[in-house]
């Protein structure tokens, strides 16, 4: 199982990455304001399923390489560290506002909402690259991988769900907060700093 030191790094890192406004969070807020939180949960279910599949596939693939091709894994480790640092720097430099398109969501069916969330999560190449880079450093191959992966995926899904609910229920107040002053910029910088720190940790570990 994961130790508390590992969890102490992973939980805040992933939470701040999740809470930073992105495609899924903005979609949750848009739907929450236009069709209500209850119906928005169909999109959330699809997104959570997609995220879980991406996380499991990413770790399974990297774990296989880790066990069978250690030299290749070391190269991937450095590439992953570089990618995390790059993403962190880009988040530091990002200047964004939250844009909503509520009208186009008013007549969406449950199936469409589910598919929208699922496809958003599973068809995003940046999401795959992020999971491949971030998750493997927190897996210890000296212990059973399945319990560790189960714990990490559970944390990921709880973090994603919590953040989507905050966006969906926050509505106009949250939108005003995010678009006010430098609030988004500072959220991006906190998440970016954590990403850079994890990237450096991965490179030197």
From TrEMBL:
Give the source lineage, highest ranks first: Bacteria, Pseudomonadati, Pseudomonadota, Gammaproteobacteria, Alteromonadales
Q: Which domain of life does the protein's organism represent? A: Bacteria
Q: Which residues cross the membrane?
A: 6-28, 48-69, 75-92, 113-139, 145-166, 186-204
Question: Could you tell me which InterPro entries the record lists for this protein?
Answer: LeuE-type (IPR001123)
Question: Its membrane topology, per UniProt?
Answer: Multi-pass membrane protein
Any Pfam family the entry gives:
LysE
Keyword Transmembrane helix on this protein? yes
Keyword annotations: Cell membrane, Membrane, Transmembrane, Transmembrane helix
What are the coiled-coil residue ranges?
none
Which species? Pseudoalteromonas prydzensis
Which protein is depicted?
Answer: LysE family translocator
Any idea where this protein resides? Answer: Cell membrane
